[in-house]
Amino acid sequence: MKSIIEILKEHDIAPSMQRVKILEYLRNYKTHPTADMIYQALVDDIPTLSKTTVYNTLKTFTEKGILLALSLFENEVRYEYNKDPHIHFKCMKCNKIYDLNHSFDHYNDNLVDGHKILEHHVNLKGICKDCLKVEN
Amino acid sequence: MKSIIEILKEHDIAPSMQRVKILEYLRNYKTHPTADMIYQALVDDIPTLSKTTVYNTLKTFTEKGILLALSLFENEVRYEYNKDPHIHFKCMKCNKIYDLNHSFDHYNDNLVDGHKILEHHVNLKGICKDCLKVEN
DNA sequence: ATCATTGCAAACACTTTGCATACGC
DNA sequence: GCGTATGCAAAGTGTTTGCAATGAT
């Protein structure tokens, strides 16, 4: 597996402690965290960490194409590292967000009603496998 | 066409000037406005209108099922009245949001990877018909 | 020494809350 | 008159900005 530092360099980003830890976190935990969740997770490890740095870093990563910024179902931005085609599913009970590996080429490079489609985001909502178990 | 007051009563909402105007606006202008856009559009007509009332009203309408609150592509909530099945398309150039009448029953009442799907939101992004014309 | 990154504090934008006033039946 | 809707002001979130201190080469 490629090292975090390699990935940063490939994207023309100078490695720093904070940047490495943040990207590492996003690569390890595919939980679509918010900036605040990332901050909370890392501040024990880097006590001087500031939220500003987290925001700056996420912005840089997103601009350079390492991360994807998601507006899923609520009014907050979530970030993810995974770039493989997939869709999102959010459980209405436990609020967990799952990646589903349903590729969805339906609209790729296509014209729909005369509009040129460049991206598509499919967000599903319902009750997840685990919560269904608890219900029954 | 059903009157706004009828619709309100059907949903157990006491009609008031503000409520009527807000729902009227959303029924007439299918632009997926934010709370602020609605406020700006109506404040000339109702000079005493407050944003709190707009927020309260949108919340009530959403809870009672008259409106749908959308987290489309940015970090802000947009509201729509239209409940027919459709998907959203946002132009990356002019930022306009279109409704596309592609019903999308693909995932309806379905289990995907063991999760029970209750809602789906399909958001497309690209260049709209009009902006394509300007480009060429 | 230079240039970029970090991080505090303050500003900002959007939304919610507390509460007194006003309205409608 | 009573109960609800309204709207001001203040508080609460999530995020951005200005800028001085720090860090890396």
Give an account of the 3D structure:
Two copies of one chain form a homodimer. Chain A has 136 residues and is an alpha+beta fold. Chain A folds into two domains: 4-80, Arc Repressor Mutant, subunit A, CATH 1.10.10.10; 87-135, Dna Ligase, domain 1. Chain A has helices spanning 4-10, 17-28, 35-42, 51-63, 129-135, and strands at 68-70, 78-80, 87-91, 97-100, 110-112, 115-127. In chain A, a hairpin with a 5-residue loop joins strand 3 (87-91) and strand 4 (97-100). The longest helix of chain A is centred in the middle third of the chain and has 13 residues, at 51-63. The N and C termini of chain A lie far apart (41 Å). The interface between A and B is medium-sized, with 33 and 33 residues. The structure holds a DNA duplex (25 and 25 nucleotides).
